């Protein structure tokens, strides 16, 4: 049996959706070996006999992935190493091989971080209530030994299979030629984009920061922050590209920039892909989280689909995808989920849909996306507060006479006249209140943001 660890130390790293922390301080090879052993015990109890493991380009990732594999094999399960991979490539491997998986990445976090995203066979998520709490408890107590024979390990490269699978889901054969600027942010997009998009004759790729470098020397690999889109925007304008794509560190999210260099809302991308999926399967269910623009459920309803609203977070989206049989789901954070991809998220698959939609008609991206952009939005605004519940109550009191309705699916969402709404959510891990506002015009959004923040920050 391994040495027990303190509950505080373990719970600081094993979070609601994944494992993540600072390498050498919170996470090391011994720790992830124990996590691997505990995960293997959990999967063995569910009759799995092997685990597929992939990792990103961070300097610490290969060693940690190998240590995790040692823990898995020590519990009698076999290991399939796929080496360098994007997170959605690992999900592909889990689905294609029909086995549990572990992806070593800290996504867009700085270089000193690393972590593990775990899934069951078929890329089904493992979260706090579906395995992570059990793993944390075992690591705290000390993982029991195993008396059987250790498992074996094999190494295989599934990159070309992953690329072929994705290209088989979206037909670009009739698309017009497109010049596509891509910022990989020194992350795993530099590994997957050449294989998936570089092999398509319709596309001419203009690469930016494709060198795999886990120190992120050019900018953070987090396109959700507008500062990290600046280089791509300049490249699009300079090169005359038809469109720009930006991937985050583990390349499971994709952000779009139009031909003028202006960012395209992930909600608009959700609406576009939803329309494409509904054209193939009329009446299907589309999942959207509660911060996604109202454009999405309105369009889905107009097209005869069934919009289903859920909380923010991939575990909730994936659960709803499974329960409803939804064909597609989208989040404001640019995570896009596909039934045909085992209900998992894939930024690359979303990118293929956008490129196909652009290529099958003659309008530029800005005009194409205008049909999917019906409202102005604030984006997410964070405020540090001492008492989130108190500040939320103060905001609700101030809007009591104007609120058409208030729901508490995730924080509070307040519906206002003239199609305006706002959501206030407390962070689960930090003393923050997160505000999102949407209205008909930017002026209305600005006025609401000012009013609400004056209360929140008073």
From TrEMBL:
Top-rank lineage group of the source organism: Bacteria
Cofactor(s) the protein requires to work: Mg(2+)
Domain Alpha-D-phosphohexomutase C-terminal as annotated: residue spans: 380-454
Gene3D superfamilies assigned to the protein according to its UniProt record, in alphabetical order: Alpha-D-Glucose-1,6-Bisphosphate, subunit A, domain 3, Alpha-D-phosphohexomutase, C-terminal domain
Protein name per its UniProtKB record: Phosphomannomutase/phosphoglucomutase
Keywords, alphabetical: Isomerase, Magnesium, Metal-binding, Phosphoprotein
CDD domains linked: PMM_PGM
């Amino acid at each position: 049996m391994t040495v027990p660890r303190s509950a505080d130390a373990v719970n600081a790293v094993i979070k609601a959706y994944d494992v993540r922390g600072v390498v050498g301080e919170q996470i090391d090879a011994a720790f992830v070996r124990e996590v691997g052993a505990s995960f293997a015990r959990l999967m063995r109890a569910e009759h799995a006999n092997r685990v597929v493991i992939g990792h990103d380009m961070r300097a610490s990732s290969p060693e940690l992935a190998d240590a995790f594999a040692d823990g898995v094999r020590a519990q009698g399960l076999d290991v399939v190493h796929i080496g360098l991979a994007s997170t959605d490539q690992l999900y592909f491997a889990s689905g294609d091989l029909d086995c549990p998986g572990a992806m070593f990445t800290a996504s867009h976090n700085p270089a000193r971080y690393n972590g593990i995203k775990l899934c069951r066979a078929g890329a089904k998520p493992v979260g706090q209530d579906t395995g992570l709490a059990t793993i944390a408890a075992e690591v705290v107590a000390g993982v029991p030994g195993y008396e059987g024979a250790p498992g074996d390990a094999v190494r295989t490269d599934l990159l070309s299979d992953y690329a072929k699978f994705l290209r088989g889901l979206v037909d670009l054969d009739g698309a017009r030629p497109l010049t596509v600027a891509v910022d990989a942010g020194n992350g795993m997009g530099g590994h997957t984009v050449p294989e998936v998009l570089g092999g398509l004759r319709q596309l001419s790729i203009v690469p930016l920061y494709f060198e795999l470098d886990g120190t992120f020397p050019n900018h953070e690999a987090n396109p959700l922050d507008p500062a990290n889109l600046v280089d791509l925007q300049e490249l699009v304008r300079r090169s005359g590209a038809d469109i720009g794509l930006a991937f985050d560190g583990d390349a499971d999210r994709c952000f779009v920039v139009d031909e003028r260099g202006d960012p395209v809302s992930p909600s608009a991308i959700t609406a576009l892909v939803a329309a494409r999926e509904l054209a193939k399967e009329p009446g299907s269910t589309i999942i959207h989280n509660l911060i996604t623009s109202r454009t999405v459920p309105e369009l889905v309803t107009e097209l005869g689909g069934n919009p289903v609203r859920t909380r923010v977070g991939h575990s909730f989206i994936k659960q709803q995808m499974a329960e409803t049989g939804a064909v597609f789901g989208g989040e404001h954070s640019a995570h896009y989920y596909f039934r045909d991809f085992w209900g998992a998220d894939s930024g690359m698959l979303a990118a293929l849909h956008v490129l196909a939609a652009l290529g099958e008609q003659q309008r530029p991206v800005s005009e194409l996306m205008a049909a999917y952009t019906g409202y102005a939005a604030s984006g997410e605004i964070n405020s540090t507060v001492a008492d989130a519940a108190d500040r939320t109550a103060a905001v609700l009191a101030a809007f009591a006479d104007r609120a058409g309705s208030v729901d508490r699916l995730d924080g509070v969402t307040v519906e206002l006249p003239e199609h305006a709404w706002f959501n206030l959510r407390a962070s689960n891990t930090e003393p923050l209140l997160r505000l999102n506002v949407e209205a008909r015009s930017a002026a209305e959004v600005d006025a609401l943001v000012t009013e609400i923040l004056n209360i929140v920050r008073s």
